């Protein structure tokens, strides 16, 4: 009788343990919808941090704003709490139900596996302050590590060490950002020009424009070989212009000491560019513009109504553009820059427009494939500073933890981590 009693007690304990195991949570969901997540930007940091621990993550495309599904560990929960990231604890059954919903052919959703934390390089002069660049600001805020590189490292073939490269408000044409008209007499402009010329000479180039072209060609080769490149503001159009003007002097004497090539517009080779075609270069050194690619001078819209809309793609058939457009809203607040937006008539037909301002008839956010690699161009300087100007104070991202515009940058940061599927578009 005693044996039977102990047997029943043993079985009861076993059953309780089994039930508790079944009920025990197996996953942590980082919801990315507008209603639930209190810090979208730091949620990307948690996802990156999880990947850096050699744990895989599922990116749930179009599910609650592009949520992340992480393995449930005490360390992950603790990290979410420390960083102020909203999370939900899911059982196996709840997780299965979500994944079943996502896999349904009737749902425009997909679960993409993120496999490893990409190694990130930011192309930026060593003296630049972190707040000069929206990407370095958001990487720092999200607690995603990166390394800063510049011309010497690029020319020494160090790009091969990185999975993802960012370029920001750089001038690859050798015209010093076209700041000549307003700033040529200021100490910072004079100093930066002198330092650029000194560096070019040290690296074996007679002109800054020649050195910047060499850098652009190295970056081109990095992308063609399978790299991921993300550029913002003037780094987008000046990069393509430099490639198209290879072997052609488009700089006026105040920039490089000698005249430009006569009729240089007719010598531009659009086949060499990543994204743009048939553009007309701005010849005047007194105009703060590189070419007809940028729509800044043609904009006719008030700040209060300046928004651009994200395009909708098939998550199951086109996961790449879907990833890059994940957000808790389809309308993103506009913002200006030296290069604010792109003339859609000068965007190549094989380049995807991910975001557009229909009122102005402009492309704001574009993506394409070059060789084995990918590139994304994002117009504007700072998604939470509408008209950022030289000397303006930095943006405090603590005041914008749910910024849709900054989310687009972080989508690109995580993009290289995804297990690749063939794109249909």
List the topology elements:
Blueprint: H1 2-23, E1 25-30, H2 40-52, E2 57-61, E3 67-71, H3 74-83, E4 88-91, H4 92-103, E5 110-114, E6 120-123, H5 134-142, E7 147-149, H6 151-155, E8 164-168, H7 180-183, H8 187-202, H9 208-224, E9 228-232, H10 234-244, H11 253-256, E10 307-310, H12 319-324, E11 331-333, E12 352-357, E13 362-370, E14 373-378, H13 404-414
Parallel strand pairs: 6-7, 6-8, 8-9, 9-14
Antiparallel strand pairs: 1-3, 1-4, 2-3, 2-5, 10-11, 10-12, 12-13, 13-14
Helix pairs in contact: 2-3, 2-5, 2-13
Describe it.
By secondary structure, the chain is of the alpha/beta class. The chain folds into 2 domains: 2-114, no CATH class; 120-417, Class I glutamine amidotransferase (GATase) domain (Rossmann fold, 3-Layer(aba) Sandwich), CATH 3.40.50. 33% of the residues lie in helices and 16% in strands. The protein has 13 helices and 14 strands. The strands form 2 sheets. The chain has a 9-stranded mixed beta sheet, with helices on both faces. A 5-stranded antiparallel beta sheet has the order 4-1-3-2-5, sandwiched between helices. The longest helix has 22 residues, at 2-23. The protein is globular, with a radius of gyration of 25 Å. Mean pLDDT is 92; it is low at 1-23.
